[in-house]
Amino acid sequence: MAAMDVDFAEYKLRCELQGHGDDVRGICLCGDSGIATSSRDRTVRFWTVDLADKRKYNTCKILLGHTSFVGPLNWIAPNDEFPEGGLVSGGMDTLVLVWDLAKGEKVQTLKGHKLQVTGIVIDDLDIVSSSVDSTLIRWRKGQIVESWEAHSSAIQAVIKLPSGELVSGSSDTTMKLWKGKSCLHTFVGHTDTVRGLAFMPDLGILSASHDGSIRLWAISGESLMEMVGHTSIVYSVHSHSSGLVVSASEDCSTKIWKDGICVQSIEHPGCVWDAKFLENGDIVTACSDGLIRVWTTHQDYVADPQELESYAAKLSQYKSSRKRVGGLKLEELPGLDALQIPGTADGQTKVVREGDNGVAYAWNARQQIWDKIGEVVDGPDDGMKRPVLNGVEYDYGQYHNHFLGWCIKQIS
């Protein structure tokens, strides 16, 4: 992978941050102070570098207050009110909570959204939040100062540009650029929900979508580049001052992009909800297995060989446990001896286990034999596709009902 570009050094595991009891949903970089993470376990955790081993992080604070899973986070830099900085979090419980890190306590509860909060922006002394209820709300000193229906369906993300405007991304497939409550531009191009947004200095806005792509847009609205490589929903995207871009996806990978090309794909033992660059270029990922991982290109920071081995084993175990053939676990499929039983109708299909694969056979009534059709692989989007053979889609009815959502890879 790295051979494509001499300037690119491959990322390796630096450390795993353990503590959350469920999916880690969001990551927030807190200046030089540390990292904050949000989880389905209803908590926010604040992590700082382990002074005894600079490669690692320790939990410094656990923030309890949300009554359902926590998603977006944003950092309030230290000021008179928050001498050690603060955090703002949004949850499935419709609340926006403000936390004082020095005390590790909730200092404000902002009630106003009707559904899940999906994005948080710090705009000077104001907070702007987005929600599945399709609104953006501006809060000042704990009060709503303005609220507007910004999209025709759920808003999934909001960011602030250095120039002051806001950008929102929605399930209506569009993004909108806002100055106050005025929409300056609507970005059209994605074919499904816009899930994640990030600013890319000197270039424009990055968007991650349920359509599996990442796009780079000029502020003027022009689509400059499309990055394609993920095989499922892309939940988040982030950029680094080096020009690298990182994305997180439902396909259990984090991908690193350079000039629109994927230069590395890091597999995870679960869905990756979020990925962010640290200032030094390291990457932090949030996974559905409840762990946060830091990845580095700095040789001195790479995890010990046994930690790397343990991660490789975990990954391998996860992949084999997920190996399914059309909704059935591989180990549940019958063996080759099932082909000794004659078929009952011409064209009847049967899937059997051969080694690590599921292989489809069709009954040939004239010759009274089972003809091998090909290897069966799960389709890319859970039942959305019909079985495919030689580029031709077959109707479900022609196959045993377990074929829903699979493709058949023909054996040449």
UniProtKB/TrEMBL annotation:
SUPFAM superfamilies linked: WD40 repeat-like
Protein's name according to its UniProt entry: PFU domain-containing protein
InterPro entries reported for this sequence: PFU (IPR015155), WD40/YVTN_repeat-like_dom_sf (IPR015943), WD40_PAC1 (IPR020472), WD40_repeat_dom_sf (IPR036322), WD40_rpt (IPR001680)
Residue intervals of the PFU domain: 342-396
GO CC annotations, alphabetized: cytoplasm; nucleus
Keywords: Cytoplasm, Repeat, WD repeat
GO biological process, one term: proteasome-mediated ubiquitin-dependent protein catabolic process
WD repeats: 17-50, 87-109, 148-179, 187-227, 227-258
Record-annotated membrane-spanning stretches: none
GO molecular function: ubiquitin binding
Highest taxon in the source lineage: Eukaryota
